[in-house]
Specification:
heterodimer; A: 165 residues; mainly alpha; 0% strand; B: 348 residues; three-stranded mixed sheet; 70% helix
Chain lengths: 165, 348
């Protein structure tokens, strides 16, 4: 049942950005099932924003912003969980029933990223995995572009240090 | 550095499986069908292109609640059990007395209600449901079936939903209330026209009740329009004042922080204090404008103050490790010792 081109465009947006949002959520939560849920929720809220005629100038950054806020909410709920628990659960390798193949090499860097400050892991993901420029990242995370650049450099150094431990 | 960035880039391979993708896509398709969008609305080309991002509107007002977990899962499972498209969609056109009417009320409208997050969304939803109840009465009337029991049921449905809509609208923003009031006035006007022209629908009591309810709803809506215009001015006043208050608290926190941190170099301290003074001047202007009833000027001044304070906070976060209070968002401490690299600690 189509509601005109907005419905089609909405599904196209999912076809185009669904994996990117999923990837972003996996890196931040290390939980594929949760990442799928978050991806779906992100697009549902995007649809609601379209219905409410929310002004937006770029759907890609808007989607990341929604996903990011959902993850922040999720983290707030999980504040009491220990770090070890976060590392243990969720990182499933090739025989995962839900089907995403996370190779062993991915698992290693994902674990290392979990040790970083939340904002550091986030800017690294947006910069190197999603390919966004610092200026664009600045809009999404609400910091100045300068702060973002500095944060990226420091985060890479920290990650390097973590992985050579 | 290259090795690390290469490994990060390898993460680009992470994606959903084909099954997961098609499952999620199917659910999004169903979701979009349940929540129809207004005719003629499309996503503009500009917004869809992945060109350079110019400005993202940070969309925080709808994130007052998240709804993971069993409720969503149950309702979505219900949708799937009903076969997704078919039954649920057919139910949308049902009127009281039809077999599928319970599906419309108990399933479809519950699903919509589960996804209405925030006061404004809730108010719009309740107004939509009121439109549905009125439309059902219209449909029955046009079939000549609005009499006796059916009329009584329709009238009580409308009355009940009108109350729910009024309650929900009370919590929404002024502009949303105004829009809803206008819609309600229009829909009741239509209903009264239908009732007047469908003489077969006239039974004494039921018709009288429906027109009375219609009159009541209309009167409330008209009142609402009048009230809302008056209270809109008041509401703007309040929100600018609140914004100024918050900005003043933020300024106080930053001033205290700068004062308490002895490790700043003389030069840095002088710069920070100059910026804080500039922000304070803007806040004083904002207060003066507010007192003089100059809304726009007050808003502009407090915005200028907020911008300066934002820059101060950015600089601080580059100088050392800052602590941020999770409730207020203010910086409460800064660690400038040489082993603390710049960054933000949210204490998560």
């Amino acid at each position: 049942m189509q509601e005109g081109t907005a419905h089609e465009q909405f599904l196209e947006a999912f076809d185009q950005y669904g994996d990117a949002i999923f990837r972003f959520c996996v890196v931040k939560t290390s939980d594929q099932a949760l990442a799928q849920d978050l991806t779906q929720e992100t697009f549902m809220r995007y649809w609601q924003a379209l219905r409410a005629k929310k002004p937006m100038t770029n759907q890609r950054s808007f989607l990341y912003t929604i996903a990011r806020n959902l993850i922040i909410d999720w983290y707030r709920k999980r504040k009491t969980d220990s770090l070890e628990q976060k590392l243990d659960d969720g990182l499933q390798v090739a025989d995962d029933a839900l089907g995403t193949e996370l190779l062993a090499e991915h698992a290693e860097i994902l674990r290392a990223m979990k040790d970083l400050e939340e904002h550091d892991a986030e800017v690294l993901t947006l910069r190197f995995v999603e390919g966004l420029e610092p200026r664009d990242i600045a809009e999404i995370v609400g910091e100045s572009a300068n702060t973002v650049s500095v944060r990226i450099n420091r985060a890479v150094k920290r990650l390097q240090a973590n992985m050579h431990v | 550095m290259n090795d690390i960035t290469k490994q990060l880039e390898n993460l680009q391979q992470v994606r959903m499986s084909a099954e997961a993708r098609s499952r999620v896509r199917g659910e999004l398709d169903a979701y979009a069908s349940f929540h129809p969008i207004a005719e003629g609305v499309t996503i503009s080309e500009e917004v869809r292109s992945s060109e350079h991002i110019q400005h993202a509107s940070v969309w925080s007002s709808l994130f007052t609640q998240t709804r993971f977990g069993t409720m969503k899962a149950t309702l979505l499972a219900t949708v799937l059990v009903l076969g997704g498209g078919g039954t649920a969609v057919a139910a949308q056109n049902a009127v009281p007395g039809d077999t599928l009417y319970p599906v419309k009320i108990n399933v479809n409208e519950n699903i919509r209600s589960a996804f209405a997050v925030g006061a404004n969304a809730e108010a719009r939803l309740q107004a939509d449901l009121l439109a549905e109840r009125v439309e059902e009465a219209n449909t029955l009337a046009s079939r000549g079936e609005l009499s006796g029991d059916a009329a009584v049921r329709a009238e009580s449905n409308i009355a009940a939903q009108a109350e729910a809509a009024a309650n929900a609208a009370a919590h929404a923003d002024a502009d949303v209330r105004l829009a809803i009031a206008a819609d309600v006035a229009a829909m009741v006007g239509n209903l009264r026209t239908t009732l007047a022209t469908e003489t077969s629908a006239r039974t004494n009591d039921a018709f009288a009740r429906l027109t009375t309810t219609g009159d009541t709803v209309l009167a409330v809506a008209e009142d609402e329009q009048a009230n809302t215009k008056a209270s809109t001015m008041l509401a703007m006043d309040i929100s600018v004042e609140t914004r100024i208050e918050r900005a003043e608290e933020r300024h106080e926190a930053l001033t205290a922080l700068v004062k308490a941190t002895s490790e700043f170099s003389a030069e840095t301290r002088a710069e920070l204090q100059a910026d804080l003074k500039a922000a304070a001047d803007h806040l004083a202007e904002a207060r003066a404008s507010l007192a003089a009833d100059a809304q726009a000027a007050a808003e502009a001044s407090v915005e200028a103050a907020d911008e300066i304070m934002g820059e101060i906070e950015s600089s601080l976060s580059l100088m050392g490790e800052v602590q941020i209070d999770a409730n207020t968002g203010f910086i409460t401490d800064i660690d400038l010792s040489s082993n603390a690299e710049g960054g933000v600690n949210l204490g998560l």
